[in-house]
Amino acid sequence: MSALLQKVVEVAAAVLQRPDGTFLLAQRPADKIWAGYWEFPGGKVEAGETAHDALVRELHEELGIEVLTAYPWLTRVFTYPHATVRLSFFRVTEWRGELYPHEGQQFSWQQAQDVRVSPVLPANAPILRALELPALYAISNVAELGVESFLIKLQAQLDAGLQLIQLREKNLTPERLRELAVRTVAMAHAAGAKVLINGDLALAREVGADGVHLTSLQLAELTERPSVAWCAASCHTDEELQRAQRLGCDFAMLSPVLPTQSHPGAAHLGWERFSALAAGSSIPVYALGGLTRAEMSIAWQRGAHGIALLRQAW
Q: Does the keyword DNA damage belong to this entry (predicted)?
């Protein structure tokens, strides 16, 4: 392998998102390699720049806009025939100025589940899948609410736009858990939401759930990703987070970030440690533990895809 191929090229990439959830893709100009392919705008990180600095500069040079708010998000390494690139993705939610194609490229606003331009650069395909995930991941709390009260609250949250639920009820009998799972999946699917079953792959398949959420113990024991549409994992350490990525999980839940009501004196990560662990993740990471909906912006600033809530979700 030549020195050129061994060198890793650092690239900053932007997911410009509008309030309606659409994001911007740009078509590479005819005079560039991979001409005609669609990608997230951005460019190489120059010497002495941070990835954020490069992002701001590139978006000004390419699109004519001034970045106001950009959240660190995912890091993906991809090997093309001509080079290996490390892409540092940022979600850009606020900018000033009108988009203008300074390099003559075409623009298109797209939805994650209905991308209508092609071909898309291979390195960007996993990013499109990650963009299907909402910012809030709600964990069931039947243990405290009771089944009927939980289902009433679930319907209310679904009506308010909840899109992703983890059914996690360790204290229910298998029969009662199955009954609850059937009802939860039916309600969620009627609202266009996804349900992941905690720790029980067989149950997830039986009730038609969208996937499984692996416990940290399962994560340590598995050697290949379960064959489901969506697979997530509970992580508490860097080692577990790395394993979730190697296994091919779609996203991870990292906890506990702050002291929790159920374990007030237990050790917790804190935002600094959470940020350090999430910084290089190639998959979306949800922050869990001691949080409320008000912490969403803080979580984004620290590199989280969003937050996971138990009591506060309902």
A: yes
